[in-house]
Amino acid sequence: MLCITEPINIRGKNKSIKLTPSKNFIIDYLIDWHPAIKNQYTFRHTLDNYKEIAFAKTFAESSHIKNLQMKNRAKGVVVGENCIDIDSEIASNSTEFVKHKILDLLGDLSLLYGLHFQGKITAINAGHKLHHELVKRILP
User: Fold this and answer.
1) Which domain holds residue 67?
2) pTM above 0.85, yes or no
3) DSSP secondary structure code for residue 50 in this structure
4) Residues of the chain whose pLDDT is less than 50?
């Protein structure tokens, strides 16, 4: 078990991720970078509520999805099935965005001896780049 004893703060333009000591594993995640997302705070993820995030779909703007498909890079993407088009009407009512970002973070954290550690993570618009920076700072 990896126990976080010192805070770690990483900041970028309009984004941040902070890891602080805690007796539990907690993730608080906020995303607020697109009008359709409408400031999705958060979801507090703990070890008890994996089922609430497990099936969260990925998401992208329709122009990005079309661009990837034209480059033959989004072969498995099916809008509405495994991907949400942010520009769609459905997107404005979805809480899957923040839940999917937590899944991204969990995947990136799995590089750390699985997910066996204690600490509280507070992320704001973080994304993979800050997630990876956090992992590098935690590793000895």
Assistant:
1) 2-138
2) no
3) G
4) none
